[in-house]
Amino acid sequence: MSASIDRMNPPALPDAGNVGYSQISITHPAPLAFVSGQVAWSADGTPAPASLAEQTAVVVANLQGALDALQASPDDIVQMRIYVTDLRPETQEIAMTEIMRFLRGAQPSLTGIGVAALAGPDLQIEVEMVVQVAA
């Protein structure tokens, strides 16, 4: 990637860097790819697994597939939105542990959102990304 993303955690806001993300991400001139929300559906049609941890692993594999298709890495992610049904500290920890491992130290701007339902009754997590890509 030739362009860069500046990350900020200004003193007037809580230091999100301590938990693995940035309050502000500034992109420089480069195209952006908007990756649709990825859920625990596999390309081969395998049903979504039952547990949140297993679903998060499938979602992360799908996110990595999107990055691979874009020839990008976690460092190129500008923003992520993570939607979780039954969002509580315990479910947040399950999801975020796997998400942080996927990010490998990159700190995109990130929002976690508790929702009543997703696109299927068996789905517990969905993640969308904005990714800076090479021109």
TrEMBL record:
<dbReference type="InterPro" id="IPR006175">
    <property type="entry name" value="YjgF/YER057c/UK114"/>
</dbReference>
<dbReference type="GO" id="GO:0019239">
    <property type="term" value="F:deaminase activity"/>
</dbReference>
<dbReference type="InterPro" id="IPR035959">
    <property type="entry name" value="RutC-like_sf"/>
</dbReference>
<dbReference type="GO" id="GO:0005829">
    <property type="term" value="C:cytosol"/>
</dbReference>
<dbReference type="Pfam" id="PF01042">
    <property type="entry name" value="Ribonuc_L-PSP"/>
</dbReference>
<comment type="similarity">
    <text>Belongs to the RutC family.</text>
</comment>
<protein>
    <submittedName>
        <fullName>RutC family protein YjgH</fullName>
    </submittedName>
</protein>
